[in-house]
Write a structure and sequence with these properties.
Blueprint (H helix, E strand, L loop, with lengths): L1 H23 L2 E4 L4 E4 L7 E2 L1 H4 L1 E8 L8 H17 L6 E5 L3 E7 L4 H9 L4 E4 L5 E4 L3 E10 L5 E10 L1 H13 L6 E4 L2 E4 L11 E7 L2 H13 L6 E9 L1 H55 L2 E2 L1 H30 L4 H33 L3 H35 L23 H22 L2 E2 L1 H4 L1 E7 L6 H8 L7 E5 L5 E6 L5 H15 L6 E7 L1 H29 L2 H24 L3 E2 L1 H32 L3 H33 L2 H38 L1
Parallel strand pairs: 3-15, 16-21
Antiparallel strand pairs: 1-2, 4-6, 4-14, 5-6, 7-8, 7-11, 9-10, 10-13, 11-12, 14-20, 17-19, 17-20, 18-19
Helix pairs in contact: 1-7, 1-10, 3-6, 7-8, 7-10, 7-18, 8-9, 8-10, 8-18, 9-10, 9-15, 9-17, 11-16, 11-19, 15-16, 15-17, 16-17, 16-19, 17-18, 17-19, 18-19
Length: 712
């Protein structure tokens, strides 16, 4: 038995190491003749704009001339995709959003400004005669290519765009040029005259040239626009976000380091607190990470900064499942069972609790995916995948690994499992229940009042506006930058950013146009000797988008709470669900109130964090309720003792699961980038508030409701 278990455990570890190596670095594999390399699986993972740099655009159709149909959006998407393909950009993401919007993500784009202009242009091409009549449109052009204009000696002197007409267009153009010899025919793009050549003779070949191009890029882009065709309706860019590759690369490296630190600290905690089972959990956690990453690669999930937060959070939750199991094993050992039967019994009794706790998190993740957009959806996907994988590793791998370790070491000492007879501190749960409930309700009222008085500091996601981040390369005077910006926007806020304070962050309630943004960058380039590449990021959101996001956030929160209430009612009973929802509202009001008082920005990341709190804070509450349900037969109608005993049997595991999650998410907050801190701070606050509500509030609320119902 010992040798077999040793072989199995060693083989599992070797396979895990090989898979980990293959994922991150690839493997040199020997062949009969020479060597060849197996590429790293990591290369298959797609990275979001916040890691690679790129542009994110939401285009909103102009509905002034009538309702926009799905067919109209489909045609527009096809046109936009053709334009982007013509730029040589690979794998853009273009999808419909709502009933009149198109969402576009383009990673690793070299010239972001050029891409913005190409994507959003209506590109309505018209040929207009001297009388103002439209004689031809872009639909009469079957081909457009850039062309070089050469002098008599053969030297290239300019660039132009060559247009080739359809057969019908060829006839019309020949007729019109014959009638207007000596006059101008204007070539107009989106209402702007781009060329107005004089007709010198009848043109029968069905070709025309647009001249006056400043450089090759302008000629190529114009040819692509015309070739792709005009958009079926006019679109306005209501949300634009550009991220430079420098900022993205820095975000990736810092996030990886922060995540690694979090994982190491969680593993250390498990080994110290749970001894031998903790070591088994650490091995299983390594397997969990490998399986998770391979699934990410296989599903081609786009990894974003919030997605990293989802991965780290799910790692903390994977450990949570182990904590629930190990505490059960300790209980079984303390009542006299030997090690192996205690392990089997501990896993068996913990499964229902783990399933109930994780389903609620999946509910929150599903709401985030259905009602969120962009990076929020990325977070939801990584969170849901993580929860599902954690169920597999915690229930199956951890048990096998732990049994193998027991067989190898012939371990039968309770101390190796952290199980020792000691007087555990007993919480006066029901005895001080009215006090705990009063404190919880008072906190809810106080923080709700703070929120009502202070209001919210809405980020540009919700309020609309613009944010520009520029790399100044050295320390700068904020007042000097404010003076520079006064020419463009005297009401903007200017702050320092970056780890060394060399980034300038300009925030404004104004929706800067591309022209205004470019003018600002030109001024910075002039005053501080900067390049356009020093524009690290630009984010603008129209007010209409902000209102839509607020509606989506409220809908997602209500749907999540309703689904959790229904699920708990089915699995437990309605009064359990009511108590759990009040506890969740307590957690949310505390987080919202703190953000309101401190005037911290409320944006899409904040809402995603709140919904995550909804899904996670309920975990510890379900652990308590599950124990109440289990103990019910034993304590019968003595509801007070039932709640008191159940909470005291579970509060240490609630504390430990909260600690492991705080360690994982806290590492991201301390060592991660500022963007991810916006995401993790409300989580940290919510998890701490959730520890109080799940241990001391939820059970007492149920006790009060149940007692009142019984007395009636």
């Amino acid at each position: 038995m010992k040798n077999k278990s040793l072989v199995k455990l060693t083989s599992l570890i070797i396979v895990a190491v090989l898979l980990g190596t293959l994922f991150f670095t690839g493997l040199p594999v020997s062949k009969l003749f020479g060597y060849y390399d197996v590429a790293a699986v990591n290369d298959l993972i797609k990275y979001g704009l916040d890691f690679t740099g790129g542009i994110y655009i939401v285009l909103e159709a102009d509905e002034s001339e009538g309702e926009v149909s799905d067919d109209t959006l489909d045609k527009a998407i096809a046109t936009i995709r053709s334009r982007i393909d013509g730029m040589g950009v690979s794998e853009p993401t273009i999808t419909k959003q709502g009933s009149n919007q198109i969402r576009i993500s383009i990673a690793d784009v070299t010239d972001q400004q050029e891409a913005l202009e190409m994507v959003g242009k209506t590109a309505q091409l018209e040929f207009i005669d001297p009388d103002g009549n439209v004689i031809l449109t872009g639909e009469d052009v079957k081909a457009s290519t850039y062309d070089e204009v050469k002098d008599e000696s053969g030297l290239m002197v300019a660039y132009s765009v060559k247009l080739t007409f359809t057969d019908d267009g060829k006839e019309i153009f020949a007729t019109e040029t014959a009638e207007h010899i000596g006059q101008q025919i204007q070539i107009v793009l989106d209402g702007e005259v781009i060329s107005a050549p004089q007709v010198k003779e009848t043109i029968t070949e069905g070709e025309a040239w647009i001249t006056g191009m400043e450089d090759k890029d302008e000629a190529v882009n114009l040819a692509v626009l015309i070739r792709a065709g005009a958009l079926p309706v006019a679109f306005e860019a209501v949300h634009v976000e550009t991220i430079g590759p420098t900022l993205g690369a820095g975000s990736l490296s810092k996030s990886l380091v922060a995540g690694l630190i979090g994982v190491i600290l969680v593993m250390a905690f498990m080994a110290v607190v749970y001894k031998l089972p903790g070591i088994a959990a650490d091995i299983a956690l390594g397997l969990y990470i490998i399986i998770y990453l391979y699934l990410m690669a296989a599903m081609k999930v786009t990894l974003t900064l919030p997605g990293v937060a989802g991965i780290i959070l799910s790692i903390g939750m994977a450990v949570d499942s182990n904590v629930i199991i190990f505490e059960r094993i300790k209980e079984e050992i303390l009542v006299g069972k030997s090690v192996r039967p205690a392990i089997n019994a501990g896993f068996k009794s913990a499964i229902a609790t783990i399933l109930d706790a994780n389903v609620t998190t999946i509910i929150a993740g599903a709401a985030l995916f259905l009602f969120g957009s962009g990076t929020v959806q990325g977070f939801a996907v990584t969170l849901i995948i993580g929860v599902l994988v954690s169920l597999i590793t915690a229930v199956f791998f951890t048990k096998r690994i732990l049994l193998w370790i027991v067989d190898i070491g012939k371990v039968d000492s309770p101390k190796a499992f952290g199980a020792k007879e000691s007087k555990q501190f007993s919480l006066p749960v029901v005895k001080q229940g009215k006090t705990f409930v009063a404190v919880g309700l008072a906190a809810m009222i106080i923080f709700a009042a703070f929120t009502g008085i202070s209001g919210f500091n809405l980020g540009i996601d919700f309020a609309g506006g613009s944010i520009i981040q520029v790399d100044m390369h050295s320390e700068f005077d904020v007042e000097d930058v404010k003076a520079l910006m006064a020419e463009f926007d005297s009401g903007c806020d200017v702050t320092t950013a970056g780890d060394d304070g060399t980034y300038v962050m300009i925030s404004s309630s104004k929706d800067y146009t591309d022209e205004e943004k470019n003018a600002i960058m030109d001024k910075f380039a002039e005053e501080y000797s900067l390049e356009y590449e020093d524009l690290l990021s630009f984010n603008k959101v129209a007010p209409s988008i902000g209102k839509d996001l607020q509606k989506q956030a409220l809908t997602a929160a209500l749907v999540t709470v309703a689904c959790i209430l229904i699920y708990i009612t089915i699995r437990f009973e309605f009064l359990f669900g009511v108590a759990a929802v009040i506890a969740l509202v307590h957690d949310l009001l505390i987080v919202v109130g703190i953000f309101s008082v401190l005037k911290l920005p409320v944006n899409s990341s904040f809402i995603a964090a709140l919904l995550t709190i909804l899904g996670y804070s309920i975990n510890n509450t379900i652990v308590v309720f599950d124990r109440v349900r289990e103990n019910r037969k034993r304590y019968g109608k003595n509801i007070g003792e039932l709640v008191d005993v159940s909470v005291n049997q579970t509060w240490t595991r609630s504390l430990n699961t909260t600690i492991t999650t705080l360690i994982a998410v806290g590492a991201l907050y301390i060592f991660g980038v500022s963007t991810i801190r916006e995401f993790t701070l409300p989580m940290l606050l919510g998890f701490i508030a959730g520890l109080f509500s799940s241990v001391l509030l939820a059970g007492n609320l149920w006790y009060m409701f149940k007692t009142k119902k019984t007395s009636k």
